[in-house]
Amino acid sequence: MSAAALGVLKMVAIYSIVSAHVDVKEGASGVLAVLKTVYYVFGSMGVGLFFIVTGCGVAARPKKISATFTKLFSFYALPWVLSGCVVYSYLYFRKGAPNLSLVNFLIGNGSYLYFMPVFFLVLLFGVSLRFRVLRIFALVASLAYTVSGQALMSHVISEHLNPLLWIPYVVFGFALDASSRQSRNVFISLEFLLIIIFALWGFLFTKDQFVTQSGLNYQSATLVFLVCSVGGILVSHRKLPLGSSIDEVSKNTLLVYLWHMPLIGALNFASNNYVKPLFLVSPAIVLGCFFLLLKLARRFAPSAWGLRLLGARLQ
Predict the structure, then answer these.
(1) Neighbours of 203 (CB within 10 A)
(2) How far apart are the C-alpha atoms of 85 and 105, rounded to whole Å?
(3) For 207, left (φ over 0), alpha (ψ -120 to 50), or beta?
(4) 315: in domain
(5) By C-alpha distance, which of 248, 259, 258 is closest to 7?
(6) Does residue 47 form part of some domain?
(7) DSSP states of 219-266 as a string?
């Protein structure tokens, strides 16, 4: 899998996640009402795209759990915990005590950080998916759960933390990596065929409509099909431009993901109360701010340990 293709995929994913947190208030009309729907639909794709990238990475670089755990702690755990504590404190002092504990906030049980614990599980145990028979079994089981509409987690644990929601994207990432190495089209793979079948099942028999803001929007076989289709198209077009700005941000999506909430929150406040057209460009402003931060860091402090602790990769 080419680095350029994965870079574009990661860039689209992080733009989607930032867009998901643009908060156009209820009752918006006209352009803002359309923009709210666009951000909702597009914002539903980002986490799935990141799990496709994760699947590609695990397939291409399988490692022992012990080595992976060391990398997890140094590269991901410290920035994750630090950012979670800082953002939680920010919310506490700005809005009062949040309605969930710090531990729940950190593990994503009611917060935006739910990607991190599932991501850890994939990195630790995803090597077992190297066996295709096991991947196909896991894919079918996960898709069957998705179209069932049932919630398997307890009422005190967010369904977003259920790995079954995300396994289809990880397995598709494996299929993308295999197709790339074998110069085959991923859209004729068994994995994608199964995704199509379950998407049709969900759409025809369970009235699967992910473009709604009620319930768990990620439990949708239609969404799995859409995200995997977009991911496959982005990766297959290897001539997509990867300029310096895209390259800089795509290498630091962890930094953006962990720290974007206070910035997008401030932009939401300004947009809803003062400059409504700001909604049109607020995701781009967020990514632009991180791009400038990274450029300044490379110029004045290329080995800054502080930014590394925040999740940045400056090399």
Answers:
(1) 17
(2) 9
(3) left
(4) no
(5) 248
(6) yes
(7) --HHHHHHHHHHHHHHHH-TT----HHHHHHHTTHHHHHHHHHHHHHH
**Domain range enclosing 233:** 3-310
What phi and psi values does residue 305 have, to the nearest 5 degrees?
Answer: -70, -25
In a domain? residue 36: yes
Total domains present in the chain: 1
Say which residues have a Cβ less than 8 Å from residue 153's Cβ, sequence separation at least 6. Answer: 159, 161, 162
In degrees and rounded to multiples of 5, residue 281 shows phi and psi of -125, 5
Query: How large is the average pLDDT for residues 123-131?
Result: 86
What residue has token string 């950190």?
106
Q: Give, for 55, the enclosing helix (H) or strand (E).
A: helix 46-60
Q: Which two tokens stand for residue 307?
A: 């930014």
* H or E, element range at 119: helix 115-125
Question: Which of 40, 5, 24 has the alpha carbon at shortest distance from 223?
Answer: 40
In the structure encoding, which two tokens stand for residue 149, read together? 């509409």
- Residue 206 near residue 149 (C-beta atoms within 8 A): yes
282-296 per-position pLDDT tens digit = 999 999 999 998 888
Q: Concatenated DSSP letters for 194-209? A: HHHHHHHHHHHHS---
In a domain, residue 297? The reply is yes
In this structure, are residues 76 and 116 in contact, taking their beta carbons and an 8 Å threshold? yes
Q: For 18-50, what is each residue's pLDDT tens digit?
A: 999 999 886 667 888 889 889 988 999 999 999
- Between 315 and 284, the more confident residue is 284
Rounded to whole angstroms, the Cα distance separating 58 from 72 reads: 13
Neighbours of 267 (CB within 10 A): 23
Closest CA to 194 of 145, 133, 143, 233: 143
